[in-house]
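ok so i was messing around last nite and threw this chain in just to see what happens. nothing serious, just curious
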Amino acid sequence: MSADVTRVTLKRYVPGGLPDRSSGSAGEVETRRVVAEIVASVELRGRAAVLDCRQRFDGVDRDRPLLVDRSSWQAAVSELRRQQPELLAVLRSRHENIATFARAQRAALLDVDIAVPGGRAGHVFAPVARAGCYAPGGRYPLPSSVLMTVATARAAGVIDVTLATPNVSAVMLAAAEIAGATRVLHCGGAQAIAAMAFGVAGEAERVPAADVIVGPGNKYVTEAKRLLSGRVGIDMLAGPSEVLIVAVPEAGYAVDAGVIAADMLAQAEHDADAAAILVTTDAGLVDRVEIQLGLQLADLPTAVTARQAIANSFAVVCASRAECLDVSGRLAPEHLELFTADAAGDLGNVASYGGAFVGSA
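result:
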Protein backbone atom coordinates (compact mmCIF):
# COMPACT_ATOMS: atom_id res chain seq x y z
CA MET A 1 0.00 0.00 0.00
CA SER A 2 1.44 3.36 -1.04
CA ALA A 3 2.24 6.04 1.51
CA ASP A 4 -0.60 8.30 0.37
CA VAL A 5 -3.23 5.64 0.99
CA THR A 6 -4.74 5.75 4.48
CA ARG A 7 -5.38 2.31 5.89
CA VAL A 8 -8.96 1.60 6.88
CA THR A 9 -9.63 -0.45 9.99
CA LEU A 10 -13.06 -1.94 10.58
CA LYS A 11 -14.25 -2.54 14.12
CA ARG A 12 -14.50 -6.28 14.68
CA TYR A 13 -17.05 -8.18 16.71
CA VAL A 14 -17.94 -11.77 17.49
CA PRO A 15 -21.49 -13.15 17.18
CA GLY A 16 -22.00 -13.12 20.92
CA GLY A 17 -21.00 -9.47 21.29
CA LEU A 18 -22.74 -7.54 18.54
CA PRO A 19 -22.92 -3.75 18.98
CA ASP A 20 -26.08 -2.03 20.16
CA ARG A 21 -27.42 -0.26 17.06
CA SER A 22 -30.58 1.15 18.62
CA SER A 23 -31.25 4.84 18.02
CA GLY A 24 -31.76 7.59 20.55
CA SER A 25 -29.45 10.52 21.16
CA ALA A 26 -29.29 14.23 21.81
CA GLY A 27 -28.90 14.64 18.04
CA GLU A 28 -32.18 12.83 17.48
CA VAL A 29 -33.96 15.17 19.90
CA GLU A 30 -32.59 18.17 18.01
CA THR A 31 -33.68 16.66 14.68
CA ARG A 32 -37.21 16.27 15.97
CA ARG A 33 -37.27 19.85 17.20
CA VAL A 34 -36.06 21.27 13.89
CA VAL A 35 -38.46 19.18 11.82
CA ALA A 36 -41.43 20.01 14.05
CA GLU A 37 -40.73 23.72 13.50
CA ILE A 38 -40.47 23.26 9.73
CA VAL A 39 -43.69 21.25 9.49
CA ALA A 40 -45.62 23.70 11.68
CA SER A 41 -44.35 26.63 9.64
CA VAL A 42 -45.34 25.04 6.31
CA GLU A 43 -48.78 24.17 7.66
CA LEU A 44 -49.30 27.73 8.86
CA ARG A 45 -47.63 29.80 6.13
CA GLY A 46 -47.73 27.49 3.12
CA ARG A 47 -45.69 28.42 0.05
CA ALA A 48 -43.86 31.28 1.80
CA ALA A 49 -42.56 28.92 4.48
CA VAL A 50 -41.48 26.35 1.89
CA LEU A 51 -39.49 29.03 0.04
CA ASP A 52 -37.91 30.26 3.28
CA CYS A 53 -36.92 26.76 4.39
CA ARG A 54 -35.63 25.88 0.94
CA GLN A 55 -33.37 28.92 0.97
CA ARG A 56 -32.16 28.17 4.50
CA PHE A 57 -31.52 24.43 4.13
CA ASP A 58 -31.06 23.84 0.39
CA GLY A 59 -29.34 27.11 -0.44
CA VAL A 60 -31.78 27.87 -3.27
CA ASP A 61 -32.60 31.52 -3.90
CA ARG A 62 -36.07 32.40 -2.70
CA ASP A 63 -36.95 33.93 -6.06
CA ARG A 64 -36.48 30.67 -7.97
CA PRO A 65 -39.74 28.87 -8.82
CA LEU A 66 -40.79 25.92 -6.70
CA LEU A 67 -41.89 23.94 -9.74
CA VAL A 68 -39.51 23.13 -12.58
CA ASP A 69 -40.97 24.08 -15.96
CA ARG A 70 -41.82 21.05 -18.08
CA SER A 71 -39.75 22.37 -20.97
CA SER A 72 -36.67 21.97 -18.74
CA TRP A 73 -37.36 18.25 -18.40
CA GLN A 74 -37.56 17.83 -22.15
CA ALA A 75 -34.42 19.93 -22.59
CA ALA A 76 -32.64 17.65 -20.12
CA VAL A 77 -33.49 14.60 -22.21
CA SER A 78 -32.20 16.37 -25.32
CA GLU A 79 -29.02 17.37 -23.49
CA LEU A 80 -28.30 13.81 -22.44
CA ARG A 81 -29.09 12.57 -25.94
CA ARG A 82 -26.40 14.89 -27.33
CA GLN A 83 -23.78 14.74 -24.61
CA GLN A 84 -24.30 11.46 -22.72
CA PRO A 85 -26.30 9.08 -24.93
CA GLU A 86 -25.06 6.06 -22.97
CA LEU A 87 -26.45 7.51 -19.75
CA LEU A 88 -29.80 8.24 -21.39
CA ALA A 89 -29.92 4.65 -22.65
CA VAL A 90 -29.22 3.40 -19.12
CA LEU A 91 -32.03 5.53 -17.70
CA ARG A 92 -34.48 4.18 -20.27
CA SER A 93 -33.47 0.56 -19.80
CA ARG A 94 -33.53 0.77 -16.00
CA HIS A 95 -36.92 2.44 -16.13
CA GLU A 96 -38.26 -0.38 -18.26
CA ASN A 97 -36.87 -2.98 -15.82
CA ILE A 98 -38.40 -1.21 -12.82
CA ALA A 99 -41.74 -0.62 -14.51
CA THR A 100 -41.95 -4.21 -15.75
CA PHE A 101 -41.31 -5.58 -12.27
CA ALA A 102 -43.74 -3.11 -10.68
CA ARG A 103 -46.47 -4.11 -13.13
CA ALA A 104 -45.82 -7.75 -12.28
CA GLN A 105 -46.13 -6.95 -8.58
CA ARG A 106 -49.42 -5.15 -9.22
CA ALA A 107 -50.72 -8.10 -11.20
CA ALA A 108 -49.96 -10.37 -8.24
CA LEU A 109 -52.34 -8.37 -6.01
CA LEU A 110 -55.68 -9.94 -6.76
CA ASP A 111 -59.11 -8.68 -5.84
CA VAL A 112 -61.22 -11.09 -3.79
CA ASP A 113 -65.00 -11.58 -3.91
CA ILE A 114 -66.44 -14.65 -2.19
CA ALA A 115 -69.80 -15.79 -0.90
CA VAL A 116 -70.24 -15.91 2.87
CA PRO A 117 -73.32 -16.73 4.92
CA GLY A 118 -75.69 -13.82 4.54
CA GLY A 119 -73.89 -12.08 1.68
CA ARG A 120 -70.47 -11.59 0.12
CA ALA A 121 -67.06 -10.47 1.37
CA GLY A 122 -63.95 -9.38 -0.41
CA HIS A 123 -61.35 -6.76 -1.02
CA VAL A 124 -60.33 -4.54 -3.93
CA PHE A 125 -56.91 -3.06 -4.67
CA ALA A 126 -57.20 0.50 -5.92
CA PRO A 127 -54.52 3.17 -6.42
CA VAL A 128 -54.49 6.40 -4.45
CA ALA A 129 -55.26 9.53 -6.45
CA ARG A 130 -52.05 11.42 -5.69
CA ALA A 131 -48.56 10.28 -4.70
CA GLY A 132 -45.62 12.33 -3.50
CA CYS A 133 -42.23 10.83 -4.41
CA TYR A 134 -39.05 12.03 -2.73
CA ALA A 135 -35.66 11.63 -4.42
CA PRO A 136 -32.66 12.82 -2.39
CA GLY A 137 -29.74 14.43 -4.15
CA GLY A 138 -28.26 17.09 -1.95
CA ARG A 139 -24.70 15.89 -2.61
CA TYR A 140 -25.09 13.92 -5.82
CA PRO A 141 -27.95 13.15 -8.21
CA LEU A 142 -29.82 9.92 -7.50
CA PRO A 143 -31.91 9.23 -10.62
CA SER A 144 -32.45 5.67 -9.40
CA SER A 145 -34.71 7.04 -6.64
CA VAL A 146 -36.69 8.99 -9.25
CA LEU A 147 -37.23 5.90 -11.38
CA MET A 148 -38.01 3.54 -8.51
CA THR A 149 -40.63 5.77 -6.92
CA VAL A 150 -42.31 7.45 -9.88
CA ALA A 151 -42.36 4.39 -12.15
CA THR A 152 -43.79 2.27 -9.34
CA ALA A 153 -46.54 4.81 -8.66
CA ARG A 154 -47.43 4.88 -12.34
CA ALA A 155 -47.49 1.09 -12.53
CA ALA A 156 -49.91 1.09 -9.57
CA GLY A 157 -52.26 3.35 -11.50
CA VAL A 158 -51.62 6.65 -9.71
CA ILE A 159 -52.64 9.52 -11.98
CA ASP A 160 -51.01 12.48 -10.20
CA VAL A 161 -47.37 12.08 -9.14
CA THR A 162 -45.32 14.88 -7.58
CA LEU A 163 -41.56 14.35 -7.55
CA ALA A 164 -39.71 16.43 -4.93
CA THR A 165 -35.93 16.72 -5.06
CA PRO A 166 -33.29 19.28 -4.07
CA ASN A 167 -31.26 18.28 -7.16
CA VAL A 168 -32.67 19.39 -10.51
CA SER A 169 -29.68 18.46 -12.65
CA ALA A 170 -30.19 17.21 -16.18
CA VAL A 171 -30.04 13.55 -15.20
CA MET A 172 -32.69 13.98 -12.49
CA LEU A 173 -35.05 15.89 -14.77
CA ALA A 174 -34.53 13.39 -17.58
CA ALA A 175 -35.39 10.59 -15.15
CA ALA A 176 -38.56 12.45 -14.13
CA GLU A 177 -39.58 12.81 -17.77
CA ILE A 178 -38.87 9.15 -18.56
CA ALA A 179 -40.65 7.86 -15.45
CA GLY A 180 -43.74 10.01 -16.04
CA ALA A 181 -43.88 12.47 -13.15
CA THR A 182 -46.70 15.01 -13.21
CA ARG A 183 -44.59 17.82 -11.73
CA VAL A 184 -41.14 18.36 -10.21
CA LEU A 185 -40.97 20.25 -6.93
CA HIS A 186 -37.51 21.81 -6.55
CA CYS A 187 -37.24 21.34 -2.82
CA GLY A 188 -35.58 18.94 -0.40
CA GLY A 189 -35.65 17.84 3.20
CA ALA A 190 -38.48 18.09 5.70
CA GLN A 191 -39.90 21.13 3.92
CA ALA A 192 -40.47 19.06 0.76
CA ILE A 193 -42.29 16.36 2.72
CA ALA A 194 -44.46 18.99 4.43
CA ALA A 195 -45.19 20.69 1.09
CA MET A 196 -46.44 17.43 -0.40
CA ALA A 197 -48.42 16.53 2.72
CA PHE A 198 -50.25 19.87 3.05
CA GLY A 199 -50.15 20.91 -0.58
CA VAL A 200 -48.99 24.28 -1.89
CA ALA A 201 -51.61 26.78 -3.00
CA GLY A 202 -51.05 29.23 -5.82
CA GLU A 203 -52.28 29.95 -9.28
CA ALA A 204 -48.92 29.46 -10.98
CA GLU A 205 -47.38 26.85 -8.70
CA ARG A 206 -50.05 24.68 -7.21
CA VAL A 207 -49.02 21.37 -5.64
CA PRO A 208 -51.98 19.22 -4.55
CA ALA A 209 -51.78 17.44 -1.20
CA ALA A 210 -50.61 13.86 -1.64
CA ASP A 211 -52.44 10.80 -0.37
CA VAL A 212 -49.16 8.95 0.19
CA ILE A 213 -45.50 10.01 0.34
CA VAL A 214 -42.72 7.57 -0.52
CA GLY A 215 -39.00 7.55 -1.13
CA PRO A 216 -35.68 7.51 0.74
CA GLY A 217 -34.11 10.43 2.57
CA ASN A 218 -31.99 11.57 5.48
CA LYS A 219 -32.97 11.78 9.14
CA TYR A 220 -34.91 15.02 8.56
CA VAL A 221 -36.98 13.47 5.78
CA THR A 222 -37.65 10.40 7.92
CA GLU A 223 -38.68 12.49 10.91
CA ALA A 224 -41.02 14.57 8.74
CA LYS A 225 -42.66 11.36 7.52
CA ARG A 226 -43.06 10.17 11.10
CA LEU A 227 -44.59 13.45 12.19
CA LEU A 228 -47.01 13.59 9.24
CA SER A 229 -47.91 9.91 9.06
CA GLY A 230 -51.29 10.52 10.66
CA ARG A 231 -52.17 13.02 7.97
CA VAL A 232 -50.74 11.27 4.92
CA GLY A 233 -49.79 7.68 4.11
CA ILE A 234 -46.08 6.83 4.09
CA ASP A 235 -44.06 3.89 2.87
CA MET A 236 -41.94 3.29 5.97
CA LEU A 237 -39.76 4.91 8.62
CA ALA A 238 -36.29 3.97 7.50
CA GLY A 239 -33.24 4.30 9.69
CA PRO A 240 -29.78 5.15 8.35
CA SER A 241 -29.07 3.30 5.11
CA GLU A 242 -27.09 0.08 5.53
CA VAL A 243 -25.75 -2.95 3.72
CA LEU A 244 -24.78 -6.28 5.27
CA ILE A 245 -22.57 -8.60 3.24
CA VAL A 246 -22.30 -12.27 4.12
CA ALA A 247 -19.13 -13.63 2.50
CA VAL A 248 -18.04 -17.22 3.03
CA PRO A 249 -15.00 -18.30 1.02
CA GLU A 250 -14.61 -22.07 0.71
CA ALA A 251 -13.13 -24.73 -1.54
CA GLY A 252 -14.23 -24.03 -5.09
CA TYR A 253 -15.78 -20.68 -4.19
CA ALA A 254 -13.58 -17.58 -4.03
CA VAL A 255 -14.68 -14.17 -2.76
CA ASP A 256 -13.29 -10.97 -4.30
CA ALA A 257 -12.28 -8.52 -1.56
CA GLY A 258 -12.28 -5.67 -4.07
CA VAL A 259 -15.91 -6.26 -5.01
CA ILE A 260 -16.94 -6.41 -1.35
CA ALA A 261 -15.09 -3.16 -0.60
CA ALA A 262 -16.73 -1.48 -3.60
CA ASP A 263 -20.19 -2.57 -2.44
CA MET A 264 -19.51 -1.33 1.08
CA LEU A 265 -18.40 2.05 -0.24
CA ALA A 266 -21.38 2.26 -2.60
CA GLN A 267 -23.55 2.27 0.52
CA ALA A 268 -21.20 4.34 2.67
CA GLU A 269 -21.05 7.24 0.20
CA HIS A 270 -24.82 7.82 0.54
CA ASP A 271 -24.74 9.37 3.98
CA ALA A 272 -22.35 9.91 6.87
CA ASP A 273 -24.83 8.01 9.06
CA ALA A 274 -24.87 4.96 6.77
CA ALA A 275 -23.24 1.66 7.72
CA ALA A 276 -21.63 -1.22 5.86
CA ILE A 277 -21.29 -4.54 7.68
CA LEU A 278 -19.19 -7.54 6.66
CA VAL A 279 -20.08 -10.93 8.16
CA THR A 280 -17.66 -13.72 7.29
CA THR A 281 -15.96 -16.89 8.44
CA ASP A 282 -12.57 -15.67 7.24
CA ALA A 283 -10.69 -13.11 9.36
CA GLY A 284 -8.14 -12.86 6.55
CA LEU A 285 -10.89 -11.64 4.22
CA VAL A 286 -11.55 -8.74 6.60
CA ASP A 287 -7.86 -7.79 6.31
CA ARG A 288 -8.03 -7.88 2.51
CA VAL A 289 -11.24 -5.85 2.44
CA GLU A 290 -9.66 -3.21 4.71
CA ILE A 291 -6.77 -2.89 2.25
CA GLN A 292 -9.20 -2.54 -0.63
CA LEU A 293 -11.24 0.05 1.24
CA GLY A 294 -8.12 2.16 1.69
CA LEU A 295 -7.14 1.83 -1.97
CA GLN A 296 -10.59 2.65 -3.30
CA LEU A 297 -11.16 5.54 -0.92
CA ALA A 298 -7.95 7.16 -2.17
CA ASP A 299 -9.59 8.31 -5.40
CA LEU A 300 -13.30 8.13 -4.53
CA PRO A 301 -15.01 11.51 -5.19
CA THR A 302 -17.35 10.88 -2.24
CA ALA A 303 -14.55 9.84 0.12
CA VAL A 304 -15.27 12.45 2.81
CA THR A 305 -18.79 11.13 3.37
CA ALA A 306 -17.81 7.50 2.85
CA ARG A 307 -15.03 7.66 5.45
CA GLN A 308 -17.46 8.94 8.05
CA ALA A 309 -19.86 6.10 7.28
CA ILE A 310 -17.09 3.49 7.32
CA ALA A 311 -16.31 4.68 10.85
CA ASN A 312 -19.84 3.46 11.74
CA SER A 313 -19.21 0.15 10.00
CA PHE A 314 -17.84 -3.11 11.30
CA ALA A 315 -17.06 -6.77 10.62
CA VAL A 316 -18.27 -9.89 12.39
CA VAL A 317 -16.16 -13.03 12.22
CA CYS A 318 -18.17 -16.23 12.68
CA ALA A 319 -17.33 -19.91 13.08
CA SER A 320 -19.59 -21.19 10.28
CA ARG A 321 -21.83 -20.19 7.40
CA ALA A 322 -24.88 -20.99 9.52
CA GLU A 323 -23.64 -18.61 12.21
CA CYS A 324 -23.14 -15.89 9.56
CA LEU A 325 -26.75 -16.30 8.45
CA ASP A 326 -27.94 -16.18 12.04
CA VAL A 327 -26.04 -12.92 12.65
CA SER A 328 -27.58 -11.44 9.52
CA GLY A 329 -31.05 -12.34 10.73
CA ARG A 330 -30.41 -10.76 14.11
CA LEU A 331 -29.15 -7.51 12.57
CA ALA A 332 -32.03 -7.46 10.01
CA PRO A 333 -30.30 -5.25 7.41
CA GLU A 334 -31.95 -2.97 4.89
CA HIS A 335 -29.79 -4.39 2.07
CA LEU A 336 -28.44 -7.95 2.25
CA GLU A 337 -25.79 -9.40 -0.06
CA LEU A 338 -24.93 -13.10 -0.05
CA PHE A 339 -21.55 -14.21 -1.38
CA THR A 340 -21.71 -17.92 -0.60
CA ALA A 341 -21.40 -21.12 -2.63
CA ASP A 342 -25.16 -21.73 -2.32
CA ALA A 343 -26.42 -18.15 -2.06
CA ALA A 344 -29.90 -18.92 -3.41
CA GLY A 345 -30.36 -21.71 -0.90
CA ASP A 346 -28.89 -19.70 1.96
CA LEU A 347 -31.37 -16.89 1.39
CA GLY A 348 -34.14 -19.15 2.64
CA ASN A 349 -32.29 -19.47 5.96
CA VAL A 350 -32.05 -15.73 6.64
CA ALA A 351 -34.77 -14.43 8.96
CA SER A 352 -35.07 -10.71 8.18
CA TYR A 353 -33.91 -8.27 5.53
CA GLY A 354 -35.26 -5.51 3.29
CA GLY A 355 -33.87 -6.32 -0.16
CA ALA A 356 -31.58 -9.22 -1.02
CA PHE A 357 -28.87 -9.45 -3.66
CA VAL A 358 -27.86 -13.04 -4.29
CA GLY A 359 -24.57 -14.20 -5.79
CA SER A 360 -21.63 -12.41 -7.33
CA ALA A 361 -23.15 -11.66 -10.76
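not much to say yet. The two ends are 28 Å apart (CA to CA).
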